């Protein structure tokens, strides 16, 4: 029996990067994982990889910017599997610009891919999570915690997600639902693109990691997500878990 045996998990942005790392770690613990992603090609490839271990796992193609369709994602998963145990709001896209350069469109993009899907998917998932009494895992960033330059739209959406998560932890504790936040550092395609675009910034962040390296999406981040999705973490809620090699030490 795995730590997540027969648990039904939704992971947004699960076709690549940290999302795929978490999906792989979770199916190895017996979970059935529905990955939701914009990218059909990587989504289908990841679906195959997951199904080799967990045959019922699936890929759902969706653009999380389509706010009115978010409820359908939860419905499709519950219709298929009969329940939902864990919601992981991992997807987020944004543009790196100074506040002076940031437009309404940039704000809409960051909040539209990160904050709003997190909010509406949590809301749509609540009736089902009340039944299973399980978990929500949301995603923050050191960029928000520390206010990194050129990350205004991203940092604001990430801190909005943290605020929302703490409110949900307070409101939903009585239902037995845990809501926690991972603030990761990992070598994903997103980070590789950012390293290319802003090499000095990347080296600066890398140089400040006490563990001396960016994390592995499955071994480092995925294993912590397994813990947060499992019974082992049932007395932890409303917390930001820094999975960043020690880069930021909360106090
Ligand atoms: N990688 C890091 O070091 C790091 C650091 C801090 C925070 N984070 C956060 O961790 C999470 C995962 O990051 P990552 O680096 O793996 O990201 P990534 O950019 O490598 O992957 C994101 C995934 O989300 C999907 N996606 C993007 N927009 C979408 C949309 N509109 N609809 C559906 N799917 C969409 C992409 O296709 C991709 O598969 C994000 O919330 C990110 O902000 C990552």
Automatic annotation (TrEMBL):
<dbReference type="InterPro" id="IPR036291">
    <property type="entry name" value="NAD(P)-bd_dom_sf"/>
</dbReference>
<keyword id="KW-0560">Oxidoreductase</keyword>
<protein>
    <submittedName>
        <fullName>3-oxoacyl-[acyl-carrier protein] reductase</fullName>
        <ecNumber>1.1.1.100</ecNumber>
    </submittedName>
</protein>
<comment type="similarity">
    <text>Belongs to the short-chain dehydrogenases/reductases (SDR) family.</text>
</comment>
<dbReference type="GO" id="GO:0004316">
    <property type="term" value="F:3-oxoacyl-[acyl-carrier-protein] reductase (NADPH) activity"/>
</dbReference>
<dbReference type="Pfam" id="PF13561">
    <property type="entry name" value="adh_short_C2"/>
</dbReference>
<dbReference type="InterPro" id="IPR002347">
    <property type="entry name" value="SDR_fam"/>
</dbReference>
<dbReference type="GO" id="GO:0008206">
    <property type="term" value="P:bile acid metabolic process"/>
</dbReference>
<dbReference type="InterPro" id="IPR020904">
    <property type="entry name" value="Sc_DH/Rdtase_CS"/>
</dbReference>
């Amino acid at each position: 029996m795995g730590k997540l045996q027969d648990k039904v998990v939704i992971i947004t942005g699960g076709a690549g990067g940290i999302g795929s790392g978490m999906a792989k770690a979770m199916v190895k613990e017996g979970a059935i994982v529905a990955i939701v992603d914009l990218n059909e090609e990587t989504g289908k490839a990841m679906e195959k990889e997951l199904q080799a271990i967990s045959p019922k796992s699936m890929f759902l193609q969706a653009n999380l910017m389509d706010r009115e369709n978010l409820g359908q994602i939860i419905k499709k998963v519950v219709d298929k599997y009969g329940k939902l145990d864990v919601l992981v709001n991992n997807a987020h896209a944004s543009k790196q610009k100074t506040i002076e350069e940031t437009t309404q469109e940039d704000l809409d993009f960051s909040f539209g891919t990160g904050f709003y899907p997190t909010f509406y998917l949590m809301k749509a998932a609540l009736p089902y999570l009340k039944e299973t009494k399980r978990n929500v895992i949301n995603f923050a960033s050191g960029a928000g915690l520390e206010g990194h330059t050129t990350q205004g739209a991203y940092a604001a959406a990430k801190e909005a997600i943290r605020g929302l998560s703490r409110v949900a932890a307070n409101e939903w504790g009585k239902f037995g639902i845990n809501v926690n936040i991972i603030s990761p550092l990992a070598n994903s395609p997103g980070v590789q693109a950012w390293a290319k675009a802003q090499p000095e910034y990347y080296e600066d962040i890398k140089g400040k990691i006490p563990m001396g390296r960016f994390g592995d999406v499955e071994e480092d981040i995925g294993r912590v997500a397994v813990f947060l999705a499992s019974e082992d973490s049932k007395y932890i809620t409303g917390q930001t878990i820094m999975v960043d090699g020690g880069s930021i030490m909360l106090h």
